[in-house]
Amino acid sequence: MSRSICLPLTDPIVDVHSLHSFVQSIILTQEQMLNWVYANYIHLFAIPDKTADFIHFAISSRPQDIPNLFLSRLHRDQVNRWFPDIRGFVLDCLEQGYYFSTLVNEFYIPGTSAFQTYDYPHHVMFYGYDAEQDALLAAGYFSSPRNSPKSGKCRLPCSKRPSRRSVRTLQA
Q: How much is the pTM?
């Protein structure tokens, strides 16, 4: 892939959990979805139990219940059969206009608190590719101020081995 691509993304209204913030970052690029967000995120409730308190941010936390959103789940083995390198799969998704959400291992992500220190799974959503820097554009919650602008976006170099390892080293 030799051209840059950047899928539409906006700042979410509710941004305390990656599932909700990633979904809102996508659907709120469509102005008509604002009413849906207000109607479905207005009733916050908690379920206290002995182990932890759990807060629901929406009537439903199931992505398949969100209008104008298509969700497809694939096992890592399927992806590996089609693409020998995860980079190729992510770039193919982006070329087709699909966002790609996965876990990466912060051990291999420069600028994170776990970098070269300990394994730490981190949920990210890829929304673009910068051809000039050969970097994937990722949204997520990053610990380093260098990678934490207000929107939580950063660039992850994808031509270097550690970034590819960041996806491969996590257990399925």
A: 0.75
